[in-house]
Amino acid sequence: MRKIRIRTFTLLCFVLILALPWNFYVAAHFMETKTLSFEKGRLQNETLQANISAMTRRIESDTDKWADPDWQNQLHSALRQAKMDVLIQSAADQDIYRSNPERSGSTLSTERFSVIKDGQLLGRVTLYLPQSNHVQVMAAFIGLLLAIFIVGMGMRRFVLTPLERMGLAARQIATGDWDVRLPMSRVTEIAEVRDGFDVMVKGLEQSYRKQAELEEERRFVITAVAHDLRTPLFALRGYLDGLEQGIAQSPEKMARYVAVCKDKSAQLDRLVEDLFTFTKMEYVESELNDKKVDFRHILQSSIDSLRPQAMQKGISISFHAADACIINGDMHLLERAMNNLLDNAVRHAPAGGTIEADCYRHANKVTFTVRDTGPGFSSEELERVFEPLYRGEASRSRATGGSGLGLTISQRIIRQHGGELAASNHPEGGALLAGWIPAAASE
């Protein structure tokens, strides 16, 4: 849709108001005279002035014949030829002669003068002139009214209506209704305001929806954390009550109770630590302690820290790494990410299973994979495995000891370093977590 500036629109309206009455005047003149020339009108005006002068002289010179019927008939014939009428009144404003009783009133074109002789007022004369341009004037007036109507409709359609609809849209948005349709306009300035308003509405809508999502996530996190803290706390309290009440009487039973308490406290510690890390990454902006590090050493360090836990389940961990896996990153955060991936693999790999970790450089990326021989991910888990506090188990028990935040934290740490982490199932079975981080520039 072609647009027009408001200054141009205003100028066109002004030109229309001036031009349309003139066009109507010219059209009426042509219909009456059959010509576009105004020379005939000028000649008619000259003839009219001559007739007025002749009639004036005739009436002034024959003041003694004003009441003579023969003189009145001669005057009447002359007036008919000149398309004029006359009213002659005495000094006392009494009618002496009226050529056409139907012509009267001040709306007609007239020429008035008084007849004075020897200092004495003899009478007053009113000449009714022919309406030579009456049709043209009426046509021009109609054209002016039409121009004002067209300009008014144009102003309403292109300026007032869009502004009214934008005002209505603003009131709808204020009530929380985002499904508004902003009006189009052919005036450039109105269209620019509309586009800016549209951008503002979309920004507000996105902000509102993000705020709603954050609020929903906050409620979910609070509910899930309360549930997850209550489970180990309930177990810890039960075993401590058993110790206090002397239920565990033998040393072996007491040792088992203490071991369970230590395990539950360690589980609580992991949950609180994961929650702290997640909250810090989600809501607190912190700068990375970027340094050039060898990603092989990070992955090897994580494997060494998880190897005792794996040996308890009889799980073997193999590690394959290529040379030159240098990246820029925060070593502490990356170790945390790899620990979470390997911890997830150890918890889900069956007893006597294996875990394979790889690290190599491909083009300008350092890629890594962690695979276990466990049951792998279900289709639902693949879609939601990185959601905060999501767990694939049907119940909310922590049978595997996870907090539901490990993979979420790992993915966000990797993304914080400019990379990506994805979950899938290996073709030969088991879960596969693969990711990449930009490699450091070679010096």
Compact description:
With 443 residues, the protein is of the alpha+beta class.
Please explain how this structure is put together.
The protein has 443 residues and is of the alpha+beta class. Helices cover 56% and strands 16% of the residues. The chain is built from ten helices and eleven strands. Strands 6-8-9-11-10 form a five-stranded mixed β-sheet. A four-stranded antiparallel β-sheet has the order 2-1-4-3, with helices on one face. Strands 5-7 form a two-stranded antiparallel sheet. Strand 1 and strand 2 form a beta hairpin. Helix 6 (251-283) runs parallel beside helix 10. The radius of gyration is 51 Å and the shape is rod-shaped.
Count of distinct strands: 11
Helix content: 55-70%
Helix and strand pattern: HHHEEEEHHHEHEEHEEHHEE
The general outline is rod-shaped
Structural class: alpha+beta
User: How many strands, what sense, and barrel or not for the largest sheet?
Assistant: 5 strands, mixed
Which band does the percent of strand residues land in? 15-25%
Number of helices: 10
Determine the mean pLDDT.
82
